């Protein structure tokens, strides 16, 4: 027990001595953890929301739209009494007015309903109240897309209706896919202005919106004795295919449709979160490695004071575990806060509103990953330090720079900044490689995102009814990508900053000697810039093919738009410029100190 | 050739302060100095007297708090860092007490570095480095790393490096600080040879032997000069008596 | 120089006087010239009187002390072995200078600091010569070793003078 306390005290004291570094490390791990949390939450949400909505709204097993029956209303009506059907609601009248709200025009499916709850498919009201005379209830995803709130007034075919409530249902396909399944009607010849949304009215109001040019259709919800057999029912009773959509849809198809929306985001967030974890791993390794160099002397002191080698290693490990634990907490909290914004899955589904985003399993997994990341990157340096003799540790000679003869020869004839920069790079190959790897990951992510945007816009131009921009699934994926990219860039910047700082410190003596031999301040600062620019350039160039491969792997085939060369050029130049911006200040500060002071304070 | 009488270094009223107010430390206090071309000057004093600080100031590695300083005819106390760098490339060689070699470069690469930084071609730099290493007697060790060398050998590498760009003046900070008797003898022989070839040397030392072989010996205490002597020799007859040979 | 040195040099083999002189010369390097040639023969005479060496007459008749081969007697051999084992060291002579300074200060006839400074200059001059002599000899040779010893002793003396200077300066300050 005493030993644990000792370890705790040593670790805590050391962390207090270097709060900025600890904070940076914490931020880095927290960022990765946030992304991981989001990925896991989204993953957890995918499977269930449709089922949840179905349960909470008495969702139907089969839905039928009279649109697909053409004029054969007898066959449509007969469905209600088909064998296997144990309950039904409807057929409900459906009008197809044009809705206007906040200056946007949209087509809607306006279903007429009773005020009294139905046996099958009673949409769950999330805000406000259910339909009442003169009022309209708007489906949630559609309301989100247009920014409609309870109390607003919308017009249907010019007639004003106050919005009485917002609700969700499992009976109609998820917003933006409404027309895909049951099919949409509307005034002939008029192209759809917007992705068709769903609203509910009282039945008289719905009937009032019909006109000879824009007739009513009907919608029927069925419950079967054997819900699992719904696809069989559908195939048996499906009317012969005309030119239109299929009239009957099983709940399994509706569930799959709901799933695809979320899985799009899933497709993006899952690899992104692993990439971010990789980047975090690399950053933490660099940070830990850099801390290790300073720590080695402390470990030496600990050992010289009688601490067993294992104790010294454990104290250092403990520090990073403490940080990782706190970072896991921060990341989980951040992920929990951000998740509702992203994972209101299709918003048509109940998921985010009522179900808790974080399950104990998620929390556990995230914490474990954070601890692994911290441990993995500190384990090697800690063990090394513990095994190396105390004398060498105290002499500070353990992390002596490496020698790369070929690189030294190569640099001989080059201008001074490259001459010194290459030699500085050669001194710390592991740090350079880590830095290059993190730049590669960053560049690859950005390239993948750019390809995604290019492909989507390319497709959107060819696509039909969907205006793309208002597609909420699309908008959500874009949001997710933006968040991921922002986190990625922040991580990369933190990595670059830390690597620069570590390099500048490590290169102090080297730079001071070079200055004493006649290197100007500008040349010195440039050489430090070179040490960061080289891995950045390599990472940016390597990231392009890696990003393309990444996109291909994630999208599993499918078309991939080529990226204009100009964008790629901007990407590379942008990364280099960002590195220069981050590096310039520490680099030039380091050239100000008088040479004599630096050399006197650094051991040989 | 040597124009004796024209000072390579001229210092007037040089002062260096550290800290401020209560914590003010005056490391160098009002030094005036002229160093003539081709002379060997030794500066001696107890530790903490400011001799190393003075050397750093004269060599342009630090800026004086007050005073005027000329080196090779140019005023350096107000020079920009960039101009000082150019001066270090061409006119000044500095030998540090801790050698300050780059551990990841071989002996040859260490010595050729100043020439490379000055823009000479790699081949020319390498040739010059090889010449210098021969001059200091380290031809056998050119491909070794500094860590494989003894203290005396490292010191000679540092001297060779300081000579790489044919400086006008070489400053050496405690060059025999870490050396044994044999290495000291060899180093003093080297300094003697450099002196003969016309190099101006300013050596800070606490070793009386080094001071005794200089043309001029300055004693420092508490940041100021307290003695300035030129030494002339006696005869070997005296030495015999010192050895206990009474004849 | 002690007579035991000559005894020890005879321990290897009997030698003539001039041979001994030559060997001494080599071992002393440039300082060998200062050695008085006659001194060796005087010492040998004394040793012979003390019964520690015996002279072996050459074939030809001779009466000069520079003739003949000398060899150790058994007593001489014992003496050599005993001498080699002795650990006495030449006496330093600091008291004289020390008292000089005190006398000057007490009687107020001279400033101790200037006495010290003068002595220091002299020692530095000697050090300069000694160091130059050292530099002229190959490292680790016999001559080099002897001269290095002179240098190091002078260095030690100079350090003591530094201590004297520091102390007397403080005393001056206190007055």
Explain what this protein looks like in three dimensions.
The complex is a heterotrimer of chains A (604), B (247) and C (175). With 604 residues, chain A is an alpha+beta fold. Chain A has helices at residues 2-17, 19-47, 49-56, 73-78, 140-146, 178-181, 203-208, 230-237, 251-304, 309-343, 351-354, 360-387, 390-395, 405-411, 416-427, 429-462, 472-506, 508-516, 521-555, 565-590, 595-601, and strands spanning 62-65, 85-95, 98-101, 104-113, 124-128, 136-139, 153-156, 159-168, 197-202, 217-224, 248-250. Chain A has 3 domains: 1-55 and 258-400, no CATH class; 56-256, no CATH class; 405-604, no CATH class. In chain A, a hairpin with a 2-residue loop joins strand 7 and strand 8 (159-168). Mean pLDDT of chain A is 79; it is low at 345-356 and 463-470. In chain B, helix 3 crosses helix 4 (122-135), helix 3 runs parallel beside helix 5 (151-162) and helix 4 crosses helix 5 (151-162). Chain B contains 8 helices and 10 strands. Chain C folds into 2 domains: 3-85, Arc Repressor Mutant, subunit A; 95-174. The model of chain C has no long low-confidence stretch (mean pLDDT 84). In chain C, 67% of the residues lie in helices and 6% in strands. Chain C has helices at 3-10, 17-28, 37-50, 74-85, 95-107, 112-136, 142-174; strands at residues 15-16, 53-56, 69-72. The B-C interface holds B 46, 181-182, 185-186, 188-189, 192, 207-209, 211-213, 217, 227, 229, 231-247 and C 1, 28, 30-31, 33-36, 39, 90, 117, 121, 124-135, 139-140, 144, 146-155, 158-159, 162.
Rg calc of chain A: 31 Å
* CA distance, first residue to last residue of chain C: 46 Å
- Reading the helices and strands of chain C in chain order gives HEHHEEHHHH
Question: Can you tell me the overall shape of chain C?
Answer: elongated
> Spans of chain C of 5+ residues with little confidence (pLDDT < 50)?
none
| Number of E strands of chain A | 11
Q: Overall mean pLDDT score of chain C? A: 84
Q: What helical percentage do the residues of chain A reach?
A: 55-70%
Tally of helical segments of chain A: 21
């Amino acid at each position: 027990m005493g030993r644990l306390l000792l370890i705790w005290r040593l670790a805590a004291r050391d962390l207090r001595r270097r709060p900025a570094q600890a904070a940076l490390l914490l931020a880095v791990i927290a960022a990765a953890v946030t992304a991981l949390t989001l990925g896991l939450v989204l993953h957890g949400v995918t499977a269930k929301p449709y089922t949840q909505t179905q349960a909470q709204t008495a969702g139907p097993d089969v839905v039928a739209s009279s649109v697909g029956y053409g004029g054969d209303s007898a066959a449509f009506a007969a469905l209600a009494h088909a064998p296997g059907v144990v309950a039904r609601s409807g057929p409900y009248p459906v009008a197809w007015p044009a809705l206007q709200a906040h200056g946007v025009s949209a087509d809607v499916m306006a279903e007429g309903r009773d005020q009294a709850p139905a046996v099958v498919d009673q949409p769950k009201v999330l805000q406000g109240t259910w339909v009442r005379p003169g009022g309209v209830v708007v489906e949630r995803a559609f309301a989100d897309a247009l920014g409609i709130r309870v109390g607003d007034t919308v017009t249907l075919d010019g007639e004003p209706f106050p919005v009485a409530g917002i609700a969700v249902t499992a009976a109609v396909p998820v917003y933006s896919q409404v027309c895909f399944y049951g099919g949409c009607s509307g005034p002939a010849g008029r192209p759809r202005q917007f992705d068709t949304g769903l609203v509910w009215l009282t039945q008289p109001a719905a009937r009032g919106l019909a006109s000879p040019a824009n007739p009513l259709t009907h919608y029927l919800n069925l419950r079967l004795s054997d819900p699992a057999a719904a696809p069989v029912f559908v195939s048996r009773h499906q009317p012969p295919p005309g030119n239109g959509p299929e009239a009957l849809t099983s709940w399994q198809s509706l569930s799959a449709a709901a799933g695809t929306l979320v899985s799009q985001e899933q497709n993006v967030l899952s690899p992104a979160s692993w990439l971010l974890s990789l980047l975090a791993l690399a950053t933490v390794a660099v940070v830990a490695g850099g801390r290790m160099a300073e720590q080695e002397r402390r470990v030496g002191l600990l050992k010289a004071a009688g601490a067993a080698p294992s104790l010294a290693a454990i104290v250092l490990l403990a520090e990073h575990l403490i940080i990782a634990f706190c970072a896991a907490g921060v990341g989980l909290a951040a992920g929990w806060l951000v998740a509702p914004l992203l994972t209101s899955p299709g918003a048509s589904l109940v998921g985010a509103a009522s179900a808790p985003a974080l399950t104990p399993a998620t929390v556990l997994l995230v914490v474990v990953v954070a601890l692994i990341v911290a441990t993995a990157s500190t384990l090697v340096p800690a063990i090394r330090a513990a095994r190396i003799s105390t004398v060498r540790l105290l002499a500070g000679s353990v992390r002596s720079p490496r020698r790369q003869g070929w690189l030294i020869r190569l640099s001989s004839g080059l201008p001074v900044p490259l001459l010194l920069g290459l030699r500085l790079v050669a001194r710390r190959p592991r740090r350079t490689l880590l830095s290059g790897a993190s730049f590669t990951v960053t560049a690859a992510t950005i390239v993948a995102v750019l390809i995604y945007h290019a492909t989507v816009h390319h497709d959107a131009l060819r696509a039909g009814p969907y205006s793309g921009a208002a597609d909420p699934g699309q908008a959500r994926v874009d949001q997710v990508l933006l968040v991921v990219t922002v986190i990625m860039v922040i991580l990369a910047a933190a990595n670059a900053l830390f690597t620069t700082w570590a390099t500048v410190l490590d290169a102090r003596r080297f730079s001071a000697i070079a200055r004493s031999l006649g290197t100007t301040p500008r040349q010195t600062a440039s050489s430090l810039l070179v040490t960061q620019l080289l891995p950045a350039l390599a990472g940016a160039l390597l990231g392009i093919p890696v990003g393309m491969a990444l996109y291909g792997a994630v999208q599993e085939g499918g078309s991939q738009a080529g990226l204009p060369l100009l964008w790629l050029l901007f990407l590379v130049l942008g990364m280099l410029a960002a590195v220069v911006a981050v590096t310039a200040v520490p680099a030039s500060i380091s050239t100000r100190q008088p040479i004599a002071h630096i050399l006197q304070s650094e051991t040989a | 050739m040597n124009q004796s009488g024209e000072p390579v270094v001229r210092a007037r009223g040089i002062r260096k302060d550290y800290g401020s107010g209560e914590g003010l430390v005056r490391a160098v206090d009002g030094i005036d100095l002229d160093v003539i071309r081709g002379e060997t000057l030794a500066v001696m004093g107890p530790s903490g007297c400011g001799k190393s600080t003075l050397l750093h100031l004269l060599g342009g590695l630090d800026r004086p708090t007050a005073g005027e300083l000329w080196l090779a005819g140019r005023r350096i106390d107000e020079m920009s860092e960039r101009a000082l760098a150019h001066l270090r490339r061409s006119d000044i060689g500095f030998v540090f007490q801790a050698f300050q070699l780059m551990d990841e470069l071989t002996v040859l690469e260490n010595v050729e570095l100043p020439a490379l930084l000055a823009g000479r071609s790699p081949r020319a730099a390498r040739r010059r480095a090889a010449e210098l290493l021969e001059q200091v007697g380290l031809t056998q060790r050119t491909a070794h790393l500094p860590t494989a060398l003894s203290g005396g050998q490292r010191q000679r590498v540092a001297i060779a490096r300081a000579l790489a760009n044919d400086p006008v003046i070489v400053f050496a900070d405690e060059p025999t600080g870490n050396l044994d008797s044999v290495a000291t003898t060899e180093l003093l022989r080297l300094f003697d040879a450099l002196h003969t070839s016309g190099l101006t040397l300013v050596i800070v030392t606490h070793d009386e032997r080094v001071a005794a072989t200089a043309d001029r010996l300055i004693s420092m205490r508490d940041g100021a000069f307290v003695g300035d002597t030129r030494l002339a020799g006696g005869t070997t007859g005296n030495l015999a008596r010192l050895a206990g040979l009474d004849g | 120089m002690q007579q035991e040195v000559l005894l020890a040099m005879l321990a290897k083999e009997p030698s003539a006087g001039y041979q001994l002189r030559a060997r001494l010369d080599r071992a002393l390097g440039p300082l060998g010239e200062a050695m008085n040639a006659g001194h060796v023969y005087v010492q040998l005479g004394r040793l012979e009187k003390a019964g520690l060496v015996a002279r072996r007459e050459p074939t030809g008749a001779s009466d000069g002390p520079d003739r003949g081969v000398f060899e150790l007697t058994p007593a001489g051999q014992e003496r050599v072995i005993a001498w080699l084992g002795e650990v006495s060291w030449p006496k330093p002579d600091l008291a004289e200078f020390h008292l000089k300074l005190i006398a000057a200060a007490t009687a107020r006839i001279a400033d101790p600091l200037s006495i010290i400074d003068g002595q220091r200059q002299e020692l530095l001059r000697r050090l300069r010569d000694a160091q130059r002599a050292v530099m002229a000899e190959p490292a680790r040779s016999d001559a080099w070793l002897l001269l290095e010893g002179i240098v190091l002793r002078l260095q030690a003396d100079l350090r003591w003078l530094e201590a004297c200077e520091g102390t007397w300066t403080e005393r001056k300050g206190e007055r």
